[in-house]
Design brief:
By secondary structure, the chain is mostly helical. The chain has one domain (about 1-33). About 85% of the residues lie in helices and about 0% in strands. It is built from one helix and no strands. It is rod-shaped.
Length: about 35
């Protein structure tokens, strides 16, 4: 269970990182999300 909790935490952090990366890319294209 500890391993799964750790994996989930890492995946959520990665998801937030990717979301921020996408927002930056959209801003470059002229979209403000």
């Amino acid at each position: 269970m500890d391993r799964l909790t750790k994996e989930l935490s890492e995946q959520l952090a990665e998801g937030r990182r990717l979301e921020e990366e996408m927002r930056k890319n959209f801003r470059v294209l002229g979209y403000d999300l």
